[in-house]
Amino acid sequence: MKPRAHLIIAHPKKESFNYALAELAQNYLHDKNFDVVITDIYDLYQKQHAAVSPFQFSRSDPEIKQIKSEQAKIKSSQLTLVQFPLYWYSVPGLLKNYMDSVWELNFAFTPPDGVFEKSPIADGRKIMLSLSTQTPKEKYIAEEILGPMENILHPIELAFKFIGYNTLPAFVTYNIEGKSPSALEPEKQRFIQHLSSNIQSV
Hints:
alpha/beta, six-stranded parallel beta sheet, 6 helices
């Protein structure tokens, strides 16, 4: 049976560089004999009108069905790759809402009435974050107000570690604002090299 990869893309514009990287990832994984399932966050929430509040006590049947469908993708995938732009030093709001709604209580973690030991979905799954910034790489250092990129990514990766994921090294494309497609072409090649170096053992 083929290994399965779950590709999550969170960007409002299909002509964006983030979409281009998601398509590269999809093609690369297909070439490596992965079965690839895709979640387009903005399609999911805007076109299908499935904007689910993670704090709702009552959900409609279509909302429940959509969440179960996404959870099935997660449970059947050995690798998850999340592609997004960095917004306010974190993931975009709709992606955060997806995380809260889909990796929910009793699916990804147990009730907080005892000692947390193991996530129900913790069985060696791996996750990779791939993100873009509008800020130059040299601004992400301890001496600058932004601080090191690893500090920004730590709480995001920690959330996935908490529910049992093994985190692979993140891929970051810096300073994409205003760059032409040709200027970003080297980043695409670097991305393919990053995938090749980090998902061989998945």
